[in-house]
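S1.2 Input.
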Amino acid sequence: MGRTQSDMTLSEARALLGVRSSATPTDLRRAFRDAAKAAHPDRDGGSPDRFRRVMTAYRRLEQASAEIVHRKPSMTPPADLRPLTITPLMAWNGGAVEHRTADGRTLRIRLPIGLRNGDMVRAGGEDMAVLVQAKDGMVVRGDDLWITVSVPPRVLEEGGRVPVVTPIGRRILWVSKKAGERRLVRAPGLGLPARGRRPQGCLFVRLAPKTGPLDSAARNLLRRFTAVWAV
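S1.3 Output.
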């Protein structure tokens, strides 16, 4: 008996079709057509079992891949489009997310890096609109990430250096007296990664007066970033 789709790993499926993990949906369809022709029982070297394995590999990778549906910036997703809810960290880093389709299927979708609110993603034959929800004190606005950091009141008054946990690790940001008065620091190039026509975003850091030890939200964010870089 052939293995089921859930039994086959992504690595095995890619090896069977001869594609890389970076393969686009178009690459995947092209590789499937070639592999299916070679594995067809009517071809020399083909067999029913080999053909079934090719079909299983394609379905496994199709379920795990996401295709960005390109649209004009002025266009908005249809109101009846099902949302694909992700976190700001996933928008920045990409990764796997589970999504339940309208017909009851559960898809495990591999998302690319740099998704923005309103992007349309197609996976498993269904279109979805990306919704990046705020989490752990981090918010996505356009191409930019926004976080809030607690700093000593003295820094707000006089300026100084502030350690900040960003998606690319711990960074030291300089807070000028003017930035302290505005309670806002802008760090170019630390927002969402560039993708397609969308530029690299910025990181905006809101400065809040520190009244106690590092808050739990910041600690939680640090643990999440550490976990991402450990993978």
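S1.4 Remarks. Residues 98 and 108 are 4 Å apart (CA to CA).
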